[in-house]
Design brief:
Elements: H1 3-11, E1 19-21, E2 27-29, H2 43-74, H3 92-99, H4 101-132, H5 139-151, H6 154-165, H7 170-177, H8 194-219, H9 223-231, H10 236-247, H11 249-264, H12 268-273, H13 275-282, H14 287-296, H15 301-325, H16 328-336
Antiparallel strand pairs: 1-2
Helix pairs in contact: 2-15, 4-8, 4-11, 5-8, 9-10, 13-14, 14-15
Length: 340
């Protein structure tokens, strides 16, 4: 073997990493390199986390978890709201809830309100948001006027609409003055139209929140996408259907979640306009009005607490289902940046 060949043998890399030749051709395994251990979180970082999350955790446990636990506890007793709860009835209160046809009607009304809120407020709010997102005169004024009903207190809204919609109210008077007397009706007491009256009031009050939310979502859509689509010959409505609405999807799903939970817990407007007794006969009662009427006002605080627990778990179950099947991809994308 020539000197050049000997030199090439000495310079050739070892094809097997981790093996070392000792005294000839016998390979031995070299010890692996030590991995660096990850340093744990120091006491300073733990103290910082505790100080940042501690107050929030205390408030959450005190005002959310503890009240629910106490309500569930009192739901096992026949309790009138004063003195210690001693008359233990077990699951009787919880069983009576689902045996009461009035509660089943209230639950059905809540379901109708959830569906109609999504079907009525959603499309109308999207159209208004698309309109107000364009440059036009009086744009700021129109936005303010649309949003004002949302910030008005429910007591004011309920009192005002109840005065306008009763049999001798402004609405029927105006209809008679303009020759539409055949449209006059008892808007609040007629079971056939009372639920639609309620939906009109809810839409008028809460559509402003949806419009503002959608406008905020529209601001995050890059103008370059719509401009490129317009250059390619897409019409205005094609741009909205193919580009704007898909990119607005996360905002729409968040709004739908908030609307659903609010509809399940609806109480104030129904109670102010219809009261605890008329709401049941007019077909506008909800689970929350049922809870107050048959719990506190009836002196059955144990039963009322049981209704509150049932309402809580129905809302929780609906929220978890929505999170699992609809909001999951949005939350995963926000937290992990999407799966590969």
């Amino acid at each position: 073997m020539s000197e050049t060949q000997h030199e090439s043998v000495r310079l050739a890399p070892d094809p097997t990493p981790g093996l070392t030749k000792v005294g000839g051709d016998t390979p031995v395994v070299s010890p692996p390199a030590r991995r660096r251990r990850r340093k744990g979180i120091g006491w300073a970082a733990r103290l910082e986390i505790a100080l940042m999350t501690g107050p929030t955790l205390i408030v959450f446990l005190s005002f959310v978890i503890l009240p629910v636990a106490m309500a569930a506890y009192y739901g096992f007793f026949s309790w009138q709201g004063y003195g210690p709860a001693e008359d233990f009835v077990g699951l009787r209160n919880y069983l009576l809830i689902f045996e009461d046809s009035t509660f089943i009607d209230a639950l059905r009304h809540n379901g109708i309100i959830v569906v109609l809120s999504l079907l009525l407020q959603g499309p109308a709010a999207i159209l208004l948001a698309l309109l107000l997102n364009r440059q036009m005169r009086g744009q700021t004024l129109i936005r303010v006027l649309v949003f004002i009903p949302y910030v008005i207190a429910e007591v004011v809204v309920g009192t005002g609409w109840s005065l306008m919609l009763h049999g001798e109210g402004v609405v029927n008077a105006v209809l008679g003055k303009i020759g539409l007397g055949w449209l006059q009706n008892d808007w609040l007491a007629d079971p056939k139209i009372a639920i639609w009256t309620l939906m009109g009031i809810l839409t008028w009050k809460y559509i402003g929140f949806a419009v503002i939310l959608f406008l905020a979502g529209l601001q995050g859509i890059p103008e370059e996408l719509t401009e490129a689509a317009a250059i390619d010959g897409a019409s205005y409505w094609q741009i909205q259907r193919r580009i704007t609405l898909p990119l607005l999807g996360p905002t729409i799903r968040i709004w739908a979640f908030l609307s659903m939970i609010g509809a399940l817990q609806l109480f104030d407007l129904v109670y102010i306009i219809w009261g605890q007794y008329v709401a049941a006969t007019a077909g506008t009662s909800t689970m929350a009005t049922y809870m107050v009427a048959n719990g506190r006002n009836a002196g059955e605080y144990g039963y009322g607490n049981a209704v509150a627990v049932v309402l809580f778990f129905i809302s929780l179950f609906a929220a978890l289902l929505y999170q699992r099947f609809i909001l999951r991809r949005d939350t995963e994308g926000a937290i992990t940046g999407g799966r590969r």
